[in-house]
Amino acid sequence: MSDRARGRWTLAAAILGSAMAILDGTVVTVALPVIQQRLSTSLAGAQWVVESYLLFLSGLLLVGGALGDRFGRKRVFAAGAGLFGLASGVCGGAPSIAVLVAARAVQGVGAALLVPGSLALITAVFPASERGRAIGTWSGASALAAALGPVAGGFLVDRFSWRAVFFLNLPIAATVIAIAVLRMPEDHPRKASSLDAPGAVAAIFALGGLVFALIEASRAAPGSARVVVPAAIAAAAGVAFGFVEARSAHPMLPLGLFRSRAFAAVNVVTLFLYAALNAAVFFLPFNLIQSHGYSPTEAGAAILPVVLLVALLSRWAGRLGERIGPKIPLMAGPALAGAGFAIYPRTGGPPSAYFRTCLPPIALLGLGMAIAVAPLTTAVMSLEPERLAGVVSGINNSISRIGGMLAIAAFGIVVAAGSGGAPGRPPSASDAGLRAIAVGSAGLAFAAAAVAGFLMPGGRNLGRRG
Questions:
Q1: Radius of gyration of the chain from Cα atoms?
Q2: Taken in order 402, 403, 408, 412, is the CA torsion positive or negative?
Q3: Average pLDDT along the chain, 466 residues, taken 10 residues at a time
Q4: Number of domains the chain is built from
Q5: Same domain for 324 and 460?
Q6: At what angle do helices 97-125 and 73-92 cross, to 10 degrees?
Q7: How far is Cα 305 from Cα 244, in angstroms, rounded to an integer?
Q8: Residues 292 and 226 in one domain
Q9: For a Cys-Cys bond, which of 2, 32, 193, 449 suits 70, CB 3.0-4.6 Å?
């Protein structure tokens, strides 16, 4: 087989692998209200369906990249696809919420092996002269998967069952593995990469304890052991994580990077902005489906403008950031997103009123995200020398997922407090709960804009270190 043919097969596998992980994140969100009803679980149970996946994905993402370096990217990529597919089958057949949450955690481990390898394989297989086009194709396909995800998830739930959302991954995973085994070129470890296993374990316990405490705080009495104990575990694990990273020769999170004010600012903006976005997108389908009569397909289509605007305008926003520097886009984008969140409660009303009620805040949110996302990525990759590009990108990717994970957990408390115990429907579905989410998400988005304004240097030069 020619090198060109191997490259095409590798690109196809990378696109399918990353699309599987992206689709899973978006389609599950639309299916959650139905899962909550069919498995007779609480809001906390629905939260854990998302949180268990994000916990292991964000906690092990950097480790997954290091495993690819040590054991071979093709091998780790295929193993991640296999584990993801196996866990998806268990998710689809889960008889209870406990089994579903556990299988979602295994999916997160598989995704942590799969996601870093997709782009790394393209970089390794394609020569420099063709790499840009290949990465562009991969990025476009990923954006398309993100755009189709909510609608596809709603369609599967409406026409078949929520279980079809997970069974969809089985043929994709099988195809990825077949291509990896039969068509992708052999690769060998580039280096004996050191694995920061103690750091990864400490990070998972710190994040997991914090998420557990936040979710339980929405339904447990103040001072309950169900809140205090996991919070104490999270605090101890967080201290241990800092100790390990400060003394490790090969830390998964080099703490010295945060001495750069620009690096710290960019990652705080990422944390706040993606926390706001994920919280709003998580809770909106509950409200639309359970309070306003939307079908899952209609609820998925309702948030489609966000993804479409990001996909259509990111190239323009990237060029704008290159021309004037990322500071202004990172102030304007989150501010516009915050304005969208501020009028989020207008999303109430039947599907027939979508263009009057739901579209304006959703479009404003999408416009703000479109202005911010590409300059944010450019800013991250321009902060450090090229030799640290993978580490810096991985850290920022993890922080965006951690922001969403923590926000979904914390905003459960906000929903419970803001719902006023709405009769006849769960707190997550009430208009009062959505108003509480809107206030919190707007605050986070405006805080992201303020951080960019006060802490990031102006102009195109962010102070890359040599």
A1: 21
A2: positive
A3: 73 84 79 87 84 86 76 84 93 93 93 80 73 68 74 86 90 90 72 72 89 82 83 92 85 80 87 88 82 85 84 78 83 92 75 86 89 80 59 78 86 68 53 80 92 76 52
A4: 3
A5: yes
A6: 160
A7: 43
A8: no
A9: 193
